[in-house]
Amino acid sequence: xxxxxxxxxxxxxxxxIPILDIIAKIIGATFTRNTRDDYWFVSFIRTEEKTxxxxxxxxxxxxxxxxxxxxxxxxxLLMYYLNTTDIHKIVNTVKNYFPSYFLFDQPTCIEPTKRxxxxxxxxxxxxxxxxxxxxxxxxxxxxIDLALxxxxxxxxxxxxxxxKYFAIGFKSESGYxxxxxxxxxxxxxxxxxxxxxxxxxxxxxxxxxxxSLLILYPKLEFNSNxxxxxxxxxxxxxxxxxxxxxxxxxxxxxxxxxxxxxRKIESMGANIKDxxxxxxxFNDINQYLIFNKSTNQNAK
Length: 300
What we know:
Layout: H1 10-16, H2 19-27, E1 33-35, E2 38-42, E3 52-57, E4 62-65, E5 70-72, H3 74-81, H4 87-97, E6 123-129, H5 133-141, H6 146-152, E7 154-160, E8 163-172, E9 175-180, E10 183-186, E11 192-194, E12 200-204, H7 207-216, H8 220-223, E13 225-228, H9 235-242, E14 247-251, H10 256-266, E15 272-274, H11 285-299
């Protein structure tokens, strides 16, 4: 009918609500500081959070949690907070707080939901160069240069419980580390070692941190050997390679797990240097990289 407003999908209505109102009324959180349109919160979607690393831009009505890292709009935020991908459950929750936004009947529709994928029983179907827009976007969110990402990562298509998925793949000695916006897993847990015939070696926990290190210090790429643990539980698997070096430069996470890993490597009698001081205040190098690139962009 002429003049009648086009009906909005539930997710469109949900995302039209001011995000600060969503946080205040449904979550009950208050920001710790703000600069212009940016509001910082102690993350309410991660229980271990102690310092404010979840940023909300009130003007753009979006959020970003540097500790996961992930971000998006109201639906994405409530998906994490309510621990569900069910659009109907999320909308029904929001209706209780913002009924005026849902006064008009909406058309019945089936909307895609975001998957939190299973982590076991993975069968690789295809390995190709990194090219899927969703994966390239995720690399961009993590502030990883795409040329560098394509050099060391691949696109893995795999099957799990009969369903097909795709993810960023990073090769280890036991398989692939798999990452996407909603999945963190692997096809086998092993270390990754890059040998440049150097007597020094960098040590990082995950490949995003290693790629971040190469962005911050490009000369390290070929001036040092590199061990990516892929989990601190792999330290015993890395011991033989670690002991082959005269010095180790450790870029581990600044949390209990990272400190414990540092002590374990130190106990091997290795000559180590804890390089994590330069990203003090952040959990890891990638979080530091994301924050600094975001700050630089906002300053322009």
